[in-house]
Structures
1.
Amino acid sequence: AQTVTQSQPEMSVQEAETVTLSCTYDTSESNYYLFWYKQPPSRQMILVIRQEAYKQQNATENRFSVNFQKAAKSFSLKISDSQLGDTAMYFCAFRSFSYSINNAGNMLTFGGGTRLMVKP
Amino acid sequence: NAGVTQTPKFRILKIGQSMTLQCTQDMNHNYMYWYRQDPGMGLKLIYYSVGAGITDKGEVPNGYNVSRSTTEDFPLRLELAAPSQTSVYFCASSYSSGVYGYTFGSGTRLTVV
């Protein structure tokens, strides 16, 4: 079974600065998908960014980008020009590449989360 | 589109009571999931369904049951509620097998006292 680890329970950043959230994972697979989800105080889970492991190019979505290091099994999220609305819990998640449908191990596996506070 | 709708948003149960958490989606997604989120923790998979009439256990299924009679609905049943089931419950759905991520409901905060 895959495991996802987020080693930073809490972080803070000043508004307009850049912050990087860490995520590592453990898998024996060569192809898979990685995600970052944002959970603001409203509790809604919002997909921030997605990375396909077989693509070497790091994914970007506006102010959000990832540093995907496949050999190191690392998938960090960089938030540039931090805004107050970025204050949230951030979850890293892993999904196997396998399309086997009757296997719970192929569902999204989440890390424990990092609570990010953006300060004015 | 409403997306994924969960009801209720909050509930307090007494030990031993039962209840059903409702989840419905209007995106015609075949795949649906139930996760629980404990304080300061990530989400753990309870049950999932790959289509109407097909359900299977996730990582933490004990104390729960599900059914999937239609594509739209995926209710989660708690039998004999216990304090260990105090948590926030999320329902989600996905196009195909979730390789593009999931769409989540807004969650149900359940407290068992």
Note: Chain B has one domain: 4-95.
2.
Amino acid sequence: QQPVQSPQAVILREGEDAVINCSSSKALYSVHWYRQKHGEAPVFLMILLKGGEQKGHDKISASFNEKKQQSSLYLTASQLSYSGTYFCGTPNTGNQFYFGTGTSLTVIP
Amino acid sequence: EPEVTQTPSHQVTQMGQEVILRCVPISNHLYFYWYRQILGQKVEFLVSFYNNEISEKSEIFDDQFSVERPDGSNFTLKIRSTKLEDSAMYFCASTLQGGAEQFFGPGTRLTVL
């Protein structure tokens, strides 16, 4: 039931763009995105609630395709502060919450 | 800004001992969660709690685990007889409504020797 993310890891130079994908074998009702820096707790980025919805947060945006059971996170003009592990997550119809497998993003100068 | 707090930040215990991890969720939040993260791995759902009872639990959350909200502010996770494989970071989270943004505490690192 855990969403699968790709790629597992990515290294970028400052200013480059990245896309992180999240897909599920089960129906997605909503998708959350979180970022976790090393040794810290996950921090909420955004929720997407409807199929086809897109949202933006500074230079980080995301899309959600309910029919394909997929979501993508777009990071544009990456900054050093974007480094961390990104997790998608989704609730089930009850009150469980499943985090994805995670994508490690490293931005280098 | 309100935040979720957790104590202790690091707990070292001997295998077979009981541990209690404590969390104070954000005061007006209604849903509470415990997660586990083994070093370098994914964040795993353990249990959710609403209206003073468990609403969902994962297969990890076996009879060795229990949760309690003893006094309306604290939210505790008890592990009755710790095993080596219980060594992990444990995060508490809370949210105002189910499915909404979760606010995480800083975590408790549990080391079982």
Note: The radius of gyration of chain B is 13 Å.
